[in-house]
Amino acid sequence: MVPLPPGHEPARSRLELRAVHELLEAQHERVRVYAEQHTPAPARASAPPAPQDLPPSPSGHDLLEAMPIPALLVAPVLHHEGGIEDFVHVGHNAAARAHPGEGQSASSSLSEWSGPAPLFVRFPALRDTALPGMLERACHDGVVQGPESIAWFRGTPDGPARSNILMRVIPCGRHLLITWEHGDPLRMALAAQKLVKTCWAEWNLGDSGIQPSRGFRDVLGLDEAAPLPGLFDLATLVTRDSLGALYQMLYDVILRKHTAECELHLRTGTATESDRVIRMVAEPEQVAPGALVWAVRAVLIDVTSQWHRRTAAEHAEREARRQRQRAETVAEVADVLREAVLPHFQGELAPSGLEAAVVYLPDATGAGVGGDWYKARRLPDGRLLVGVGDARGHGLDAVTLMAKLRYALAGLAYTEQSVEQLTQWLNEVACDDGIESTATSIIARYHPERALLRWTCAGHPCPVLLREGRATQLPAPPGGSGPALGVLSHIAYTAAETPLAPGDIVLFYSDGLVERRDSDPDLDTARLLDAVEAACPEGAPGPGHAALQAFTQRVVRLLDSPHRSDDATLLALRHITA
Q1: pTM of the full structure
Q2: Cα separations in angstroms, 434 against 397, 426, 439
Q3: Which end of the chain is more exposed for a tag (fewer CB within 10 A), N or C?
């Protein structure tokens, strides 16, 4: 978010900034009053003691020994042109003897003092470190050098090890003082702060001072030369949506004296760069337990990447939930629509010498909505209209096309035209519906007076005939199967004629029943024929609709699998004596 020019912030942001300012100013006044009340009056000055009454000043050796950290005293050796020729180790203190530095070898042990010696002869491992440069700069500039991490490799019985100390060089008259402390804990702490993008700071509420860790500016995204922000400065850096959270946290810490935390979005100042997100956990620093809060101590963590991941995950979850709800709605609407348009024809066909059973399975892997349709209906002239089809695609579009074709077929059938003409008209309906409206189908008419089934094929699998326990696929109409509906207009279709004997069963099915990904169509058909015969080992199902329905269900169970990716339909028609 790009920061607004001064004076252009929304009114609410100005009020929240004012609230933060007033909260800090009020606490500043409380600290001032407390300090005045608890600061003792200055004592009356007394006459200083006479010089002869004071102990003698300590020698340089005494001062060196009094230092609590390891220290070496070094003298520069100048050559005749005034430049530095070498450095000589002339002394050290007790702390140096006790802690000579990690990795000192026996030959360089400070406990075996033998008088002054060239520094890098006594400590050869330090020659290739940053120490020589620090010594030269201290001599030339007369200012303290460091602290700087000095590292080198040393041999141990277990193999090479890396030593690390934090070293300073301090000008001391004509000498140089080298001090050190083990640098690993501090170096590791700094590295850990950078690794996890964490820092800490303590804000004094009395003088508005701040004591930060070294990574403070980096975590906040500030330049190294930028002034350290006070608490109110921090409020001016955050986005207006974060002001309320920052105020509440400061209120809880300063007035309620509780540990509190908040998430702050820091403005980056550019329109292309996203906000930096900081998690701030703060606690009160009190004069005494339960007393006045004089400082706020906080840990700040850069959680920008985590925030973006969390936001993306929440967006993905919302989108998944929306898609799931949409799929459930589509499935529900499609189920209602399918229930309304697919027939329930138990007993309706018997007067014409047929009985029917059907099994429909919705899409197993998608939304449960597909384009399969079927129809079997007795016409006024006593003949039977039979249709099975598969509209392209899934979802409501497929169900809508399925309903259009099915109702169109129902109306066209009353013209008493041949199945060839009905199929051609149905193709024109699909072509007029749009380029995406394609479907396969079998359109059939049963003539009970001749026990003859005449049928056309528009890109659909040919029916299967079960006769005396043997299943065969019926041959395609003369000239082969025609194209799917909706592909090409003004196409003429031919019809096949299949005479039926009593007990014959004709099975109409959709490709979703047998096709699997990367499968062979001939093998799929063979698998269907085997399943039909296996579902009826006695040669034919028993009499009655229930037996035919049970047989149809057995066939479907033998063919179905979790890998099916389309809806599936199996319609069985059996020739019976009317």
Answers
A1: 0.52
A2: 12, 13, 12
A3: C
Q: How far is CA 406 from CA 343, 370, 478, in A?
A: 10, 14, 25
pLDDT tens, 434-453?
767 789 999 999 999 999 99
Distances (CA, A) of 397 to 163, 370, 471, 489: 73, 9, 35, 21
Residue entry with tokens 């709800």: 325
Burial 485-518 (b: 16+ CB within 10 A, else e): bbbeeebebbbbebebeebbbbbbbbbbbbbbee
* 285, 254 Cβ separation under 8 angstroms: no
- For the chain, helix (H) and strand (E) counts, in that order, are 14, 21
Q: Are the C-beta atoms of 240 and 267 separated by less than 8 Å?
A: no
Q: What is the band of 344 on the pLDDT scale with cuts at 50, 70, 90? A: low
For the stretch 90-105, what's the b/e string if a residue is b when 16 or more beta carbons lie within 10 angstroms of its beta carbon? ebbbebbeebbbbbbe
d(CA 424, CA 418): 10
| Residue matched to tokens 């969390």 | 310
The DSSP annotation for 269-304 comes to SSSSSPPEEEEEEEEEEESSTTS-EEEEEEEEEE-H
Cβ 265 vs Cβ 249: under 8 Å: no
